[in-house]
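During the first year of the project, the team set up a workflow for recording each protein of interest as an amino acid sequence followed immediately by a discrete structure-token representation. This format lets reviewers and collaborators read both layers of information side by side without switching files. As required by the reporting guidelines, we include two representative entries from the current panel. The first entry is reproduced here exactly as it appears in our internal archive.
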Amino acid sequence: MENMTIFTVGLILSGAIILLLAIARTHRIFKLVTFKKFRRNWRNLFLLMAFFFVGYLAVVLIVFLGHESILQLLTGVIFFFGAVFVFIVVTTGSGTFKKLQEVNEGLEDKVHQMKIQNQELQQFNYATSHDLQEPMNTVIGCVSILKQDYGDQLDEKANKFMAYSIQAADRMKELILGLSDFLKIGRERYRDVTNLENLVNIVVQELHDSIQKNEANIIVNNLPTLNVNAKDMKRVFQNLISNSLKYRKTDEPPQITISAEENAKEGWLFKVADNGMGISQKNFERVFQIFAQLHPRDKYEGMGIGLSICKKVVELHGGKIWPESQEGVGTTFHFTLRS
């Protein structure tokens, strides 16, 4: 075989190998594309490249066999489909970039809308923190003075109504403060590498009096070090441990276990388990609703906002939170955090 023929065959086979790699990459792109029109274009491109690959191999065979007339015909066919190939590439690329531009513009609009909503939330938060509290303080102050100065001149029913008014105003003030607290969560986006076991130990120290009072036993098992907002994550553990102490069984000291295990799919799975009163399955979703309370306020203090804060913090960290519980046996709160 002449040197020129060998060189030609080598070039064609090299082109066939490059084309085979391109076919593999095109197939991967085809799997990623979801838009129907683009899938059709990429599929046609894939099939045309496969046709070219077969054409390259056919040319090599014909060169070996020496059929010049067939080679000329096949060369013409390849040149024709080469032009078709280039046209499809340009059309597909143009359509893809146009779609990406539309998506980008849509994202810019959504980002702009989110900025406006964030500003509105900040204004609302300021209003709840300052403007709404002022009239509540005025109501509480006026009714308290009225009761103090004129209480002995009023009958028992009137004094009872004034007491109800003060309680309601105090409750309203608590709800306003709670709502303001809830809205502040997530405003600080700063995260740092945090040893969560040390963080939980700080929470346990801060809850020392309540833990001692209830004779609670708290076990912390090998928690990881993760990139989180330490301030917000501390609130999660504070609320979950406090709930376990609050909703304990009357005849048994609280046993609270905090653990974590690495999960390839979710990252890290945390568990805060107790042996408390438990939660009815029908209330699994309701417990995360803001201001939702499952028990009478006169028996259990609180605003019903703690688990709402937990849910918001965990979701801002890209995770999810859910309970598993059996009434009279205990509750385990699960939540995930990315590695």
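The second entry, processed by the same pipeline in the following quarter, appears below.
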Amino acid sequence: MDDLKHERRAVSFVMASSMIEGGFPIFINQASRVFPMMFFAGVTTFIGAIFHIGILTHQKKLRQHLPLKTWGFIGGVTLCNSVIALLFIFAGTRYTSGINTALLMQSEMLFSFIFFRVIIGEHISIRQMIGALIVLTGTLTVLYNGSFALNAGDILIVLGTMFFPIGNMCAKKALEVASSSYVLAVRHIVGGTVFTVLAFLYEDITLQMFSLVWDHIYLVLFYGIIVLVISKLCWYEGLKDLALSKAVSIMLGYPIFSMIFAMVFLHEIPTVYQVLGMSITIGGLFILVKRSSPSTLPVDIV
């Protein structure tokens, strides 16, 4: 009975994270139409860092003596997931729709398959090859969307997801020693610093930008607290009592929530190609995660 209770609790945590992550691509797409994106990323990432530092302080885990190897892994996930990948995604989302942003971010699973199965050399089963081809077909369907004209924003988003598998591998190694909030705090501090420096170097930052923060505080708080703090902690809490394959399978439903967020907040109606592409991609993802080794699956979503 206790095991069943723990599993239901874990499923609830992962489902909550999935719902929140569904809103992530929609809200950053809307934020890109209001803010200079590097400025927005810098402000919100620092907010997330402050909250994680507060959690560590409350738990008296602010000081953690970590081996140099673990710091290397933390650096890897920070560089790949919190800097490079987000630079591509933030740059690309302003040139495409919120729904496309959500659907194309599922390309991460395809690149995870390629990275772990092809580059590292793990055994590739026929089932996994079929799943990867189905995911690729779904991604191409979304990219096609009625014409063969390639959107630069779509390509940037897909390129951004290429870095997640490397970062996720580093995260998995780092979390064997460091706590979740510690890894996330470091990621957000470094990421926030990089984005802030880039904002002042390449964007026209004025005092008016800070008034925009107040005017659109719901966008700032959603990404800075709901996504970067609550969603990430729900995800890791769920993983404690769930098999990774089951947790990822639940998380794969987030594009459905993305479409709901897009229709409500952006008034975007999904096209036939987007719905078809999402259905094909989710089918391929379920094939990929079924009986896959844990190393193939993502440790973190963004």
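For the second entry, the following points were noted during internal review. Residues 2-294 form one domain. DSSP finds 14 helices and no strands in the chain. Both points are flagged for discussion at the upcoming steering committee meeting.
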